[in-house]
Amino acid sequence: AQKVTQAQTEISVVEKEDVTLDCVYETRDTTYYLFWYKQPPSGELVFLIRRNSFDEQNEISGRYSWNFQKSTSSFNFTITASQVVDSAVYFCALSETRDDKIIFGKGTRLHILP
Amino acid sequence: GAVVSQHPSWVICKSGTSVKIECRSLDFQATTMFWYRQFPKQSLMLMATSNEGSKATYEQGVEKDKFLINHASLTLSTLTVTSAHPEDSSFYICSALDWMMTDTQYFGPGTRLTVL
After folding, report:
1. Residue A83's CB: how many other CB atoms inside 10 A?
2. For A40-58, what is the mean pLDDT?
3. How far apart are the two ends of chain A, measured CA to CA in Å?
């Protein structure tokens, strides 16, 4: 069965600090996708990244970076030099290619304090 | 990028009434759409997979007679909450799969349902 665990329920950091959101996943499939989504207070999901299970390269996009390690089944997300606008709930998610269902973790609520 | 819309964005109804929520893919065809439910401060839980021209597939524990899904065209899926009760109050989010071009799911903005 597939499962996504985000152990950090809530994190608060002061603006400009770096913060890492952890994500650990379980799947029996060898082919799958991993995602990160941001959900601001408005509720609309904002897509951040999709990573194919065959691509273990780390990715950087501006202040965002992702570390994918199959050996530990982790897909962690780091925000560098955090800003107040980064305050939101962040969801890590998993999709097995056989049925396209996206299974979400419980989310991490991130507070960036001015 | 691909756009998915939902209508209405919010709705308030009385207990016992039925409410229909629409999910539309605006610039691509979607043979498959998904419906999620999110209770306050909780995660998104998949309710059902909606397939164009066939019956929806419901996740375990989701009452198919209460949550009616119709996917009559390649750009529209509807979720009808029948005989709504206060415990059905939630944020309902749909997604549409663009399998033809990008093989990516695009999420709608969500519909907030409040049942009085």
Report:
1. 12
2. 90
3. 41
Could you report the per-residue pLDDT of A65-80, keeping only the tens digit for each? 999 999 999 999 999 9
Contact B26, B4 (CB under 8 A): yes
**Residue A9 touches chain B, beta carbons under 8 Å:** no
Task: List the single residue in A95, A100, A106 with the smallest CB-CB distance to B43.
Answer: A106
Backbone angles phi, psi at A84, to 5 degrees: -55, -35
The closest of A100, A110, A111, A114 to A37, measured between CA atoms, is: A110
Q: Which tens digits make up the pLDDT trace of A79-98?
A: 999 999 999 999 999 998 76
Q: What is the pLDDT of residue B99?
A: 78
Contact A54/B at CB under 8 A? no
Q: Does B60 touch chain A if contact means CB atoms closer than 8 Å? A: no
Rg of chain B over all Cα atoms, to the nearest angstrom: 13
